[in-house]
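Appendix B. Raw example, untouched.
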Amino acid sequence: MADINGRTPIRITHLEMKARPEGLPECPRPPEDFRLEKMENLSVAWYRRIYHAVGDDFSWTDRSRLSDLELGAIVQDPQVEIFVIRSGDEDAGYAELDCRNPDDIELAYLGIVPRFHGRGLGRFLLNWAVDYAWRCKKPSRLWIHTETRDHTAALPMYKRTGFRVFKVVDTFAPPPLPRDSRAPSG
């Protein structure tokens, strides 16, 4: 519900873990008929497609506000690792680990395309990303954030996985972007 100035209040919850959680499956396997791939040499256009396929229903706009050059500097950085879960040739979701500060890794984005919701892919992808970060990257801290417009299952799932809240920020969402005013995808 917007305030009198038309702004939408949101709560951003930041969560962290400082050790690999007990009971986390090691090297989880994707559900049948799905496979996980690390994206190498990804294009900004591909990234924009998956970002919007996953995030449009949840008002994701942060990356839409970036130019192709700005976005490419992030997602094409060798220390930013992006993994996509696929069914056949169709992208079903992705996880993005920002390892530019190797001691303090952010699970920057994690999401499933809405038509694939309800198949356990979010839980799988979260478990896989957490396991991968601790097993392969060995940070001192792994963190993630979510906000009130994200999928309602996100915050409880993060907590069940072992993330603990370290900061809560009440603020206002940026104004929505009309579809035709998004940064160019070419």
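End of appendix B.
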